[in-house]
Amino acid sequence: MKKILGLITVMLLVVAFAPSTYAQVPDQKITVNTSDLTVDQLAKIKAEAEVKELSKKLETYGNWVGVGGEIGDAIKEGLTAVVDVADKFGNTDVGKFTMVMIAWKVVGKDIVQILLGLLFFTTFVTTLILIFRRIVLPRRIKVENPGFFKYPKKYEIVKTELDSEGVTIVTIVFVIAFLLSIWITYAIMF
């Protein structure tokens, strides 16, 4: 029974679609040499070909413009939604914390490097200045202290034991150390 129903179905399908194959009439084309046509007929055929080509181009460009406009609208709507959501999220405490964390992720390493470089430079240069003053410059030392708020206190001036050539050498060494500290600071910062 199933075989008979299947056979009947196939025959009905063949009968149903058979007339449609005969109904299709192909375009009738006639090939003529251009030398056999008059100037007016040739001009008319060329004008029709140009019109068809222009209409195809206009249709293509129109499609592109339509798609471009749709893409632009989609991008505009998407960015508007992102901005609105980001603005609402940024006004919450969690949003502020998230923005701080993002900023730290972006510039945190640079800030730490700059702070460490400045700390190194300040510490090193301050130490250099104090050591230079202690070695090269004359200083005042308290010899006698009668009490906390009692006067007169006695001071003594202690001069350096270096001669002028020694002071020059120490100064050059300290200038080199200062330039070295600038170089190390630059290496730490950047």
- Count of individual domains: 2
Low-confidence stretches: none
C-alpha-based Rg, rounded: 48 Å
Strand order of the largest sheet: 1-2
Number of strands: 2
Helix content: over 70%
Strand % is: 5-15%
Broad structural category = mainly alpha
Mean pLDDT: 84
Query: What is the string of helix and strand elements?
Result: HHHEEH
Please tell me about this protein's structure:
- By secondary structure, the chain is mainly alpha-helical.
- The chain folds into two domains: 42-91; 101-190, no CATH class.
- It is built from four helices and two strands; from the N terminus they run αααββα.
- The chain has a two-stranded antiparallel sheet.
- α2 crosses α3 and α3 (93-135) packs antiparallel against α4.
- The longest helix has 52 residues, at 39-90.
- The radius of gyration is 48 Å and the shape is elongated.
TL;DR?
This protein is mostly helical and 190 residues long. It has helices at 2-23, 39-90, 93-135, 164-189; strands at residues 139-144, 154-158.
